[in-house]
Specification:
Number of helices of chain A: 8
Radius of gyration of chain A: 17 Å
Order of helices and strands of chain A: EHEHEEHHHHHH
CATH topology of the largest domain in chain B: Naphthalene 1,2-dioxygenase Alpha Subunit, Chain A, domain 1
Order of helices and strands of chain B: HEEEEEEEEHHEEEEEEHH
CATH topology of the largest domain in chain A: Glutathione S-transferase Yfyf (Class Pi), Chain A, domain 2
Oligomer: heterodimer
CATH architecture of the largest domain in chain A: Up-down Bundle
Distance between the termini of chain A: 34 Å
Largest interface: A-B, 22 and 27 residues
Shape of chain B: globular
Largest sheet of chain A: 4 strands, mixed
Largest sheet of chain B: 7 strands, antiparallel
CATH architecture of the largest domain in chain B: Alpha-Beta Complex
Strand order of the largest sheet of chain B: 8-14-13-12-11-10-9
Number of strands of chain A: 4
Chain lengths: ~210, ~280
Amino acid sequence: MIKLYDYILSGSCYKVRLMLNILNVEYEAVPVDFYPGLEHKKPDFLALNPLGQLPVLTDDELILRDAQSILLYLVSKYDAANTWFPEDAATRGQVAMWTAFGGDEIMAASAARLHDVLNYPFDIDQQRKSAHAAFLILDDHIAEQEIKGFDWLAGTSPTIADIACFPYVSLSEDGGISREEYPAIERWLRRVMDVPGFIDMPGVLQHWRS
Amino acid sequence: MKQIDSATLNQWYVIQSCTDLTQTRPRHTRLLGSDILAERLDDGGLSVWLLSATGEQMRQLPVRECYDYVWTTMGAPEGEVFSMPEFYEEGRRMVVCGIATVQTSPGRIIENFLDMSHFPFVHIDVLGAEPETEVNNYKVNLRKDVNELWATECGFYQPKAMASATEGIEVDYQYRVANPFAAILYKTCPGRDDAMDLVGILPQPLDETNCDIHYFMLVFDDVNSDQELIQFQQGILMQDRIILENQRPRELPLERGAEITIRADAASIQYRRWIKDMGIGFGTL
């Protein structure tokens, strides 16, 4: 049985919940008191993930950390049609590239949100600036894809790259990052929300769905 | 900044939970626009200092430890922190849910908390669901003996009323505004007809349009862990946060006719009138 060590307000945990729901995989959610309890920095949790970060997914003996790695594991095991991580070499390379973008550059938007919502001592101006820089790159990329006739970050159908980038982009306003200047991102967010099996989390506005 | 009215100054405000204020974790924060520092002393006691703009300790503020929270005031309150006898009931669990920072006035926060009509649209499939959007004719009552505002007979259909709810139920709600900036919700306790669960919100006004919301649950619940209860409540508050931060003006307008109200807003209308009569000017227009 899959167990997800989960925090409802974590966008990284939400990536995994979203993927599990889309793939229709049963799992047990283990709530971790990330805030105010800081349970992810305590010995029991550090035994699972010495980095002290959520999410962690376990599947019997297997213990995985890092949302992007977990997405890759889940689709490798449960996506029989291989559409979420396509086999074509060039597409696969692009999927991996934009999945990494979701775990790296986009995380500036997560830091801004942690600052604004939970008072984390980050340099908020710097984080917002970095997030805007990442959003600009993403917006340009999506527009280029659309011009080529594609709706997704890589390839011709939704992949783990879309799931890895969606949460913290859609939650950006929690961290004071407006998306007014990114029309292509807005169109793409709505398309992700229409993927069968999509679920929301607090802060993701469900009534924006078309 | 405009002069702060005495009604606002003379309230007790939560500034931290007792467990989170330790000797190694003092809290340097703001209250009503001023910097303050709360410290846990060697003997376990507390000190709260009003700081100058350059960080010098100006004067010590009154402090209370009550309901697992640290309270202070900038003025001279007539009484003690409001009474909450449920805190002492056997079998109840006090679950402190942390702090959420929200860019709005404390009045907007209390008013949103009193508003049931947003449930089906903001807390979709949790505290409400279309098409069950009707707010019934609840009663609003200003209890002059204790100077508290109550809204009662607030029934509402909720798909998942509390963390322990497994199916939709018609929930009985009562709201208690115990002071201008402290509100408690009493709601049907799933599986216990003789008791109600409490959810409290205690905004700490950092300044007129910024607050740290301290919030808690005080419940009978043998099913859910603290972690589950906290996550449930934090999720709801994050949904409210978006609405609150998008309201303009951020201050609460107290002039009649400033905003269009309907019958379902009865609690809000009475709340605005009550704090206006009290002379609350802070965070209002």
